[in-house]
DNA sequence: AACTGTTACGCGTGACGTAATGATG
DNA sequence: CATCATTACGTCACGCGTAACAGTT
């Protein structure tokens, strides 16, 4: 058995059972992969892939289990490298964070500022995407941490740690009648055109749920993936906006007014997602704790080991 | 990086940092191991072992973490092989159980009989040892399951699943005055010479604890690692015995009488120990469920994944 | 006809074993 | 002097790439 064989099988599975594509991705030849996979299957005594004639069409039952284990093993190898880097260059390296616009724009800046001051040698990479992409990146090892809201129903490969709870507010241009509604109701909101998040983002599902529960269908005239866009169009008078409360800054958003809407929508939870069993660099733990002070290192480590007892409240 | 390198480093660490010995154990040459380990260290950029001159004297801090990860990776490889065997020969293979005399003699026979009837093609191996050895065997991959009482305070590498609770009884030759004590007390027991388990076994610690709590020091004249020896000497009149209740069989042990002692000693728990993240053969799950019917497969699997929420009461 | 996986084959690297050397107690 | 790790070196095998071949759509 061979590490390459494991990498090959993994990549082929990842690339939709296409050996040619896997070969290209790994900068090697198709025949090499083909052969090594057959050798692996031979050694294990089980086929991993279903072949119809000369084409891979599916993964066998044992194949699924084998690929799961291979993922663990390859994750372990990545961890080994991390340990090496940690000790050979403790204060330099890269921290890659996959996150959404909302987090990157409103929640992360002070954290990143503090982090950079503390670890000037660490290169920070911020990858922006939707919650699904973000999680995939972390699972694939392309990012160390995912930071998002509602980020996908507990994937097995990821450990999700609760960070902050946040609520929404309704924004409108000054003088808009919605600002006079006391108390603010869903029914009132439903009377005006609404601008809010795209359905893949920022707990848009919470918003839908709240309206659905009252049998209301808001007139959503525009959806965006970030609050800045929403605010822009609300200023233009396109409608009223529903955004994360943290996205409204009274002093900066002078052309807008906001009304708290905590009571209308279930609050959302920002979470950090980390690959299960991942080995994190020292500075990654520091980053996490800067972002969510209650997530102290030992807690995070216990959670990474799959200890579900550790569920740090909020 | 290379699987061999990982195996080498692992074996060297296991063999007390002796490359020569590791080479012998792996049927290869010292220079090969020496070189491959250096290559691994070079690739990771960190020393795993502390060298004083030409001798390995210790493991470095990163080395400890690296070796931990290596253990996981090698465990994964073992799991791959298991999957292969499971599917290539579903009903044949080997199940290796490490256990103590008490379990092997009194608790396991009916289970093993049932198991053998169901899986005639599976070779059963029973390795007998003390709780410490038993756990080590499972961790080292020499055995699939450990079955023991009080088997060591929760090792991180092992998942321990509670199986049965059991109590003790006092045995004595017919006519012995202890048999007339109603109710039986620790003080009464302390008046006679006692024969019981060796301190490494069968919750001997529970016995000590009970006496210590009353400031009594029983006159232990003989300790043994199994109940058969104890019973033999009790029959000879050497003293009274304290054994697991399951070890006394009124119909078979005609030269002995027993008195329940559940109220005197804290009850003990038989547990099954399995390597964390191990991949078990189908028949291993069946065996576990035969032994402890409440330990259904999904429960055991969840526990193996390190899900500590799963703590199946008794 | 285009695409994809498999077989055949030759090359080069790299892992391994033997022998020799260097440290250490 | 015995033990043990490291260096040096030759050998062999295995993984890889190229080329040709064989199914699939």
Automatic annotation (TrEMBL), chains A, B:
Span of domain HTH lysR-type: 1-57
UniProt keyword annotation of DNA-binding present: yes
PROSITE patterns for this protein: HTH_LYSR (PS50931)
A Pfam family: LysR_substrate
Signal peptide extent: none
Presence of the UniProt keyword Cytoplasm in the record: no
GO molecular function: DNA-binding transcription factor activity; transcription cis-regulatory region binding
GO biological process: cysteine biosynthetic process
Similarity remark: Belongs to the LysR transcriptional regulatory family.
Protein name: DNA-binding transcriptional dual regulator, O-acetyl-L-serine-binding
Organism field: Sterolibacterium denitrificans
């Amino acid at each position: 058995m061979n590490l390459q064989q494991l990498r090959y099988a993994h990549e082929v599975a990842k690339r939709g059972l296409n050996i040619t594509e896997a070969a290209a991705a790994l900068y090697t030849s198709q025949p090499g992969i083909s052969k090594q996979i057959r050798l692996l299957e031979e050694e294990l005594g089980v086929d991993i892939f279903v072949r119809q004639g000369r084409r891979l069409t599916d993964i066998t039952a044992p194949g699924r289990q084998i690929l799961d284990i291979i993922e663990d093993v390859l994750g372990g190898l990545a961890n080994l490298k991390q340990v090496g880097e940690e000790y050979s260059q403790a204060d330099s390296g890269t921290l890659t964070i996959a996150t959404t616009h909302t987090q990157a724009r409103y929640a992360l800046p002070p954290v990143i500022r503090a982090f950079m001051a503390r670890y000037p040698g660490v290169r920070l990479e911020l990858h922006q995407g939707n919650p699904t992409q973000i999680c995939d990146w972390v699972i694939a090892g392309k990012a160390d941490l995912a930071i998002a809201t509602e980020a996908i129903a507990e994937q097995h490969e990821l450990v999700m740690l609760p960070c902050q709870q946040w609520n929404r507010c309704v924004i409108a241009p000054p003088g808009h009648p919605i600002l006079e509604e006391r108390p603010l109701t869903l029914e009132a909101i439903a009377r005006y055109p609404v601008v809010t998040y795209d359905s893949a983002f920022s707990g848009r599902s919470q918003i839908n749920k709240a309206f659905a529960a009252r049998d209301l269908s808001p007139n959503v005239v525009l959806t965006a993936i970030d609050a800045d866009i929403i605010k822009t169009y609300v200023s233009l008078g396109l409608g009223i906006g529903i955004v994360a409360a943290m996205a409204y800054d009274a002093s900066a958003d002078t052309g807008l007014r906001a009304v708290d809407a905590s009571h209308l929508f279930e609050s959302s939870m920002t979470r950090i997602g980390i690959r299960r069993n991942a080995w994190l660099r020292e500075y990654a733990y520091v980053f996490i704790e800067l972002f969510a002070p209650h997530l102290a290192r030992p807690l995070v480590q216990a959670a990474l080991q799959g200890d579900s007892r550790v569920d740090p409240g909020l």
